[in-house]
Amino acid sequence: MNQTVNGPRRRGMLLVVAGPSGVGKGTLIRALLDRHSEIQWSVSCTTRDARLGEQPGSDYHFVSDEEFARMSAAGELLESALVHGIDRYGTPRAPVEEAMAAGRDIVLEIDYQGARSVRAAMPEAVMVFVAPPSSDALRGRLVGRKTESSEAVERRMRSARIEFARMGMFEYVLVNDDLDQAIEDLCAIYLAERMALRRSGWQALQSELLNGMGE
To answer: Which CATH topology does 14-42+104-213 take?
Structure first.
C-alpha cells in the first residue's frame, strides 16, 4: 500500500544489494521478489556478453560499448562502473526515479563502485553488502558455476578483495552461508526499512490518531 493515511504518497525505497561476483546476490534478490511482489527489479545494462540462460531485458540490457558511452554522456545512468577491468555496468536512471516517485520500492544489484555512486546520488538508499562465509567458499562457488575460465575466476577474486575492503560503507552486512537464512535476513531488512519512521508517512497517521481521541 503506497498511500499514507489521509496524507501524501509514500516515496518508494531503493534497496541496493551489492557484493562480489558469485556471492549469490541474484539468487537472494529473486527470492525477495518472489515473497514481495510489490518490489520492482531494476534491470542493469552491461557491455559483457550474456551468460547461458540470461534473458536480454530481463536479466540485463546487453549493450555495445558505444551505446553505453552514449547513455553515460547523456546522463541516462544513475551509476556506472568498470568491473573486473573489462566490463561496464550501469543502472538506467529513469526507471528508478519513476518507481520511487510513484511510491514503488525498487531493488538494485550492483558492485561497490556502483553502490558508492548511488549513495552520492540518493543518500536515502538502503545499502546491503552480501558476503561469503570465507574467501575459499567464494572461490568454490565461482569455479562450481563453470561459466568462467581460470583466468576469469582469478580476476573476480582480485575484484572481491577490493570489495571486501569497502564493506564499511554499507548499513548492513549479510553473510550468505545458509541460503534459507540469508533469504530470511534480506526479507527482514526490507520489512524493517519499510516501517522505518523516516519513510513511513507517520505524521498523517499520528494526526488521525490524535484527532480521533478528541480533546
So the answer is: Rossmann fold (3.40.50)
Note if the pTM is more than 0.85.
Answer: no
Position of cell 510513484?
Answer: 102
Residue that is written with C-alpha cell 577491468 in the block: 85
Given the DSSP bridges, would you call strands 87-92 and 77-83 parallel, antiparallel or unpaired?
antiparallel
Average of per-residue pLDDT across 58-65: 91
Q: Note the pLDDT tens digit of each residue in 176-198.
A: 999 999 999 999 999 999 887 66
| Grid cell in block for residue 30 | 529473486
List Cβ neighbours of 175 (8 Å cut-off, separation of 6 or more). Answer: 131, 132, 133, 182
CA distance 114 to 108: 10
Domain boundaries, the chain: 14-42+104-213
- 142 Cβ neighbours under 8 A, 6+ residues apart: 21, 22, 148, 153, 156, 157
CB 105 within 8 A of CB 33: no
Which residues, including other chains, have CB under 8 Å from residue 95's CB and lie 6 or more apart?
A: 40, 42, 43, 106
pLDDT of residue 201: 65
